[in-house]
From TrEMBL:
Organism (species): Zosterops hypoxanthus
Alphabetically ordered keywords of this record: ATP-binding, Kinase, Lipid metabolism, Membrane, Mitochondrion, Mitochondrion inner membrane, Nucleotide-binding, Transferase
Subcellular location: Mitochondrion inner membrane; Mitochondrion intermembrane space
Name listed for the protein in its UniProt record: Acylglycerol kinase, mitochondrial
Known EC number: 2.7.1.107, 2.7.1.138, 2.7.1.94
Family listed: Belongs to the AGK family.
Alphabetical GO biological process terms: ceramide biosynthetic process; glycerolipid metabolic process; sphingosine biosynthetic process
Amino acid sequence: DNLLRRAACQEAQAFGNQLIPATMPLKKATVFLNPAACKGKAGNLFEKNAAPILHLSGLDVTVVKTDYEGQAKKLLELMENTDLIIIAGGDGTVQEVLHEPGLLRITAAFSKIPIGFIPLGKTCSLSHTLYPESTNQVQHITNATLAILKGETVPLDVLQIKGEKEQPVFAVSGLRWGSYRDAGVKVSKYWYLGPLKTKAAHFFSTFKEWPQKHQAALMYLGPTERPPEEPEEKSRPPLHVRLYRRLRSYWFSPKGFPKEVAPEEWEELKLSTTELCIATQNRQLDLTRTEDFMDICIESETVSKGQFVHRGSQKMRDPHMCLEGSQCIQASRCILQLPEGTEGFFGIDNEEYEAMPVEVKLLPRKLRFFCDPRMREQLLQAAVQ
């Protein structure tokens, strides 16, 4: 572990030793660290494995500890002139900083700031997309920190999930509602069974109710065409250029009746399922795709108890996988209506929310995350093949 840390620090020092003009300010990085992640070990993991790399790289680093829920929102509102945001923690920390309090809510300008993710939590869904798999925790953390310095980014989709009265919640991975999710939450209760705890949790959940059906009504719109990426303007054009453009668009814009917009064609579906998953494409990124959509997976309700236990184990490894016999739909927007009196919970990026009727909208390529250059290369090669 110490050899891995030394090698990573030497690589980071190469960035810190680069000469910059005297007039150029240092790049500012704001780190949101959740010390409670990974059963309270996250603070120590960050200080030993990530902090030395960031300080050696020449970044002006500000570390903010999110000691209580909602603190990240207050700090984001006060934060100015940061060049990059780094989230150090697990899925819950990502949820706190990005989704619930509102990196996406506060201002659109924040969505242009690149975001780094240092996986320190128990569940880190994003790390599968951004970094190569590693069995060594120290190597995984140092690789993720070095990826931030190398500067390669990928655009990730975001789901906006809005109830009738609640403020919207944002998801980078997706939403789950059903029996596999409910059983998966209880796995840790059977810790004393060791490697059998996952199967035990799913097996015992079949005693409570069988067959386990979740009924709802789903309305959805199909995929949308991806618009071409607009080149970023480095600086604001002079006043006379802006005036000329505005006058030209006024004089030469076609006058007459506005074109009729075709009504949106909503598809409607009644469903009875073991589990419903609504997931982004972030798990299997395709940088060259021409359409934007989210995957809606409706699991078959006709499964035996044995199949339920086996499939539950698969779902623990990859929560948003679509199992054999499931119905898969591609949509850009959907409305999920639940029957009155429906109880239970949604899993939104591994965080629990009360189940209710919701509208889910895809926000394509909303955020840019730093990724390992090797992962980006693999994605581009896969697209060419």
